[in-house]
């Protein structure tokens, strides 16, 4: 890759907290309204600032009568210890793990029950104040940024119970404070597991809100295939159950599919206060394999052929050579720096053996290198820890940098072309962009690294990301496979759906949230 | 010569649970609290199962000393691959006074009765952190001990064990029979799968009492009190470095 050694050796200062230039980048990226600090900074730098949004946010909550009154009304619902306007608290609740600078809410509340959430929404509706649901804050698209200020409803801190586990029915009902790893800890003794595993240990309800997915989707599905019912609180405080009250059958033809509507709505239609999710049987036998290829094309061809042979792969992950280098350095591995496929096979012992044989042959036909195996739990864990730590390994490639993580998904047949075109684009722009993909779903991510102090580099990253998304849409894919739209992809969503498609979404939102209070500024614009 | 392995496991409060002290300050709240198999015992069971998979062991007997609820712990071990179980039942209200010395006597008796070659235990239980049972059992049996094992291999003469010690790793060789205790890095235990959980329901579990093995339950240790660590005091914000230095001097941390 051109310029890679120079890029990697650039001296970097270690970033602590948020650097001053981030608001600038965000403004230039058209995402953020400038707050007072940024306005001053922008003035000094003589840069243009974007328009301030129309809905005036609450400011200095403790210094205005309306702010104090709101705080009192909220305290009456959740108790005084569960309302905060403290600087560090609101700061934390406006910033997720993505590259975009988030805006802090004015107040954070920590309800302990669905009824309290309902009362909070009624108060906010009465005073016309934005409502932002908050789970674990591990999103990547700025979904929790309080663009118009408002009340952030942290539903994970106190609402953290697993309400029901139904072993024989393979389902569980959880509150927002239960993360996917917590759920797995609980059910594994029953021989069950919850297979949706995005990189972060995210809240299961939050995963419903973003329509999350992970490495197991190729066989076990995404959140959409693993959610049976949602309990949702609407902006006006009404509490509904999207598949019926207490319903958890495997299938249903009853009424509109509201579960599908709220799944992936990113907090713009309501607050999810509990989710009924599917569990699966822990496979009898699990084997993991790793095989290197001379080019990405070879690796992707292997994936396509494997799927066409109907091998029920549990995981098929592509790591390109840049990512392999990062993983080697970060996790102390010693793989050759070429594109690799990380594979996992689930089934009975004999099934796993025969699946592995089939894929070994396909890989060899595509110039695959040594086919490395692991069967023991700790060896497989080591393999997958390296993959799950990919993001942090990438950041470690250039200490002090942040990453713009892209997320597109295309039909599998279009994958080879898109991946190779993207890699060429990254090289052309002189960026470092390790690539990791759930290639079995046609979904891949590039971690485009940028120096937070270099707005030009961020601009280039955005350019590559947008180009990739537009190519994906043109190839019959989607601008976001699993991370959601948040703020950063609103324009792309319009391109994907066309005006009429987005207008239907606007109409639905208008019906459920007429005052436009639920998580404003996300997914699509008001008009 | 395929070995017979006796694995001990203990039902303890789950490691993720927030512990609360009982009002009488003589113990912790256990009622209604999630329990599971001691994590080090899971590692011990896993190692025994792997010995069987490597054809070095021919039979795994899992034993627990605990209340009726401990039957679940045995089932988990059977689902992981143990062959049969022995449940030495201790009434729930006597669990507080049932101590490592009693467990060691039970295990020593069972090891002799069942004529096992290896007694495999977790290095400690996460509720009492005693780290005594393996050592006392070895002493009662007059068998060699390989405790804090992070790797176990069979040799012609017996076993080669790598132990995790403060200074690093120590390799020892023992003859058989021997008592071993599992340390954290020995292996990563498997999850029980549904087919194995179903098979485990059919495996035999024998119930008995400590008296059946001639073990007297009188406690040797009396717990005087159990208390929370002192509550952390609020910090003090200082306005500047001079203020900080002055406060440090006041509290006697700085003489300068």
Features:
heterodimer; A: alpha+beta; eight-stranded antiparallel beta sheet; globular; disordered N terminus; B: nine-stranded mixed beta sheet; two-stranded antiparallel ribbon
Give the topology.
The complex is a heterodimer of chains A (527) and B (256).
Chain A: H1 4-9, H2 21-28, H3 36-45, H4 65-78, E1 83-84, H5 87-92, E2 107-109, H6 114-127, E3 131-134, E4 151-154, E5 162-166, E6 171-174, H7 180-187, E7 192-193, H8 204-210, H9 217-220, E8 227-233, E9 239-241, H10 258-262, E10 271-278, E11 280-281, E12 285-292, H11 296-308, E13 315-319, H12 321-331, E14 340-347, H13 349-365, E15 371-374, H14 377-388, H15 390-397, E16 402-405, E17 408-409, H16 415-428, E18 435-438, E19 443-450, H17 455-474, H18 490-512
Parallel strand pairs in A: 2-4, 3-4
Antiparallel strand pairs in A: 1-2, 5-6, 6-10, 7-11, 8-9, 8-10, 12-14, 12-15, 13-14, 13-18, 16-19, 17-19, 18-19
Helix pairs in contact in A: 4-6, 11-13, 11-16, 12-15, 16-17
Chain B: E1 3-8, E2 11-13, E3 35-37, H1 39-53, E4 57-66, H2 71-80, E5 84-89, H3 100-114, E6 118-122, H4 133-141, E7 145-154, E8 158-165, E9 168-175, E10 178-182, H5 194-200, E11 205-208, H6 241-250
Parallel strand pairs in B: 1-4, 1-6, 4-5, 5-11, 6-10, 7-10
Antiparallel strand pairs in B: 2-3, 7-8, 8-9
Helix pairs in contact in B: 2-5, 3-4
């Amino acid at each position: 890759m051109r310029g890679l050694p120079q890029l990697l050796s650039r001296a970097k200062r270690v970033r602590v907290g948020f650097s001053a230039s981030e608001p600038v980048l965000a403004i230039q990226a058209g995402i953020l309204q400038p707050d007072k600090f940024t306005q001053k900074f922008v003035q000094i730098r003589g840069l243009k600032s974007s328009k301030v949004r129309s809905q005036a946010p609450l400011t200095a909550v403790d210094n205005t009568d309306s702010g104090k009154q709101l705080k009192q009304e909220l305290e009456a619902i959740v108790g005084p210890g569960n309302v905060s306007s403290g600087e560090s608290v609101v700061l934390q609740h406006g910033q997720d793990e993505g590259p975009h600078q988030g805006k802090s809410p004015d107040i954070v509340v920590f309800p302990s029950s669905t009824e309290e959430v309902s009362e909070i929404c009624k108060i906010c509706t009465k005073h016309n104040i934005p409502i932002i649901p908050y789970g674990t804050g591990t999103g990547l698209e700025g979904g929790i940024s309080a663009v118009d200020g408002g009340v952030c409803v942290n539903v994970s801190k106190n609402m953290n119970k697993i309400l029901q586990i139904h072993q024989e029915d393979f389902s569980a009902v959880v509150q927002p404070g239960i993360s996917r790893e917590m759920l797995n800890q609980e059910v594994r003794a029953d021989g069950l597991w919850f297979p949706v595993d995005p990189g972060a240990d995210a809240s299961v309800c939050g995963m419903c809100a973003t329509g999350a997915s992970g490495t197991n989707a190729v066989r076990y599905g995404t959140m959409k295939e693993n959610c049976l019912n949602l309990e949702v609180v609407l902006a006006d405080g009404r509490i509904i159950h999207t598949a019926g009250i207490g319903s958890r059958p495997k299938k249903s033809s009853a009424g509109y599919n509201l579960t599908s509507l709220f799944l992936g709505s990113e907090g713009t239609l309501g607050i999810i206060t509990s989710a009924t999710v599917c569990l699966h049987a822990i496979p009898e036998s699990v084997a993991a394999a790793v095989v290197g290829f001379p080019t990405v094309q070879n690796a992707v061809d292997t994936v396509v052929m494997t799927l066409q042979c109907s091998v029920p792969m549990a995981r098929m992950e592509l790591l390109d050579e840049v990512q392999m280098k990062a993983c080697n350095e970060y996790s102390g591995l010693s793989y050759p720096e070429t594109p690799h496929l990380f594979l996992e096979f689930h089934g009975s012992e004999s099934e796993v053996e025969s699946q592995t044989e089939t894929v070994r042959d396909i890989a060899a036909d595509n110039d695959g290198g040594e086919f490395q195996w692991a069967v023991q739990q700790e060896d497989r864990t080591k393999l997958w820890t390296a993959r799950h730590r990919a993001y942090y390994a990438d950041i470690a490639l250039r200490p002090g940098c942040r990453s713009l993580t892209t997320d597109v998904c295309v039909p599998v047949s279009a994958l080879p072309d898109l991946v190779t075109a993207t890699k060429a684009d990254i090289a052309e722009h002189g960026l470092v962009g390790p690539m990791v993909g759930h290639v079995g779903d046609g979904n891949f991510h590039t971690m485009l690294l940028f120096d937070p102090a270099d707005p030009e580099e961020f601009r280039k990253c955005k350019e590559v990301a947008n180009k990739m998304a537009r190519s994906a849409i043109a190839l019959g894919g989607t601008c976001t496979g699993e991370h959601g739209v948040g703020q950063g992809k609103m324009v792309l969503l319009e391109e994907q759906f066309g005006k009429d498609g987005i207008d239907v979404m606007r109409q639905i939102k208008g019906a459920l949230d007429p005052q436009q209070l639920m998580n404003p500024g996300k997914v699509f614009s008001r008009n | 010569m395929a070995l017979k392995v006796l694995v001990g496991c203990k039902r303890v409060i789950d490691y993720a649970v927030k512990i609360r002290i009982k009002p009488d300050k003589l113990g912790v709240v256990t009622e209604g609290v999630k329990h599971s198999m001691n994590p080090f015992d899971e590692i011990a069971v896993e190692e025994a199962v792997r010995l069987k998979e490597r054809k070095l062991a021919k039979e795994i007997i899992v034993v627990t000393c605990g209340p009726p609820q401990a039957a679940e712990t045995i089932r988990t071990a059977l689902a992981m691959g143990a062959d049969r179980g022995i449940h030495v039942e201790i009434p729930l209200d006597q669990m507080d006074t049932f101590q490592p010395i009693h467990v060691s006597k039970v295990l020593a008796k069972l090891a002799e009765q069942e004529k096992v070659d290896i007694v495999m235990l977790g290095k400690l239980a996460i509720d009492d952190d005693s780290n005594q049972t393996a050592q006392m059992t070895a002493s009662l049996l007059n068998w060699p001990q390989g405790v804090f094992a992070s790797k176990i291999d069979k040799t012609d003469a017996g076993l080669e064990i790598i132990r995790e010690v403060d200074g690093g790793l120590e390799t020892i060789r023992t003859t058989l029979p021997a008592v071993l205790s599992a340390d954290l890095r020995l292996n990563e235990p498997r999850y029980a799968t549904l087919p194995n959980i179903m098979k485990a329901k059919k495996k035999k579990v024998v119930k008995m009492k400590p008296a059946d093995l001639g073990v007297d339950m009188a406690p040797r240790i009396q717990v005087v009190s159990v208390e929370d660590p002192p509550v952390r005091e609020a910090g003090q914000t200082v306005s500047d470095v001079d203020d900080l230095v002055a406060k440090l001097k006041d509290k006697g941390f700085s003489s300068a």
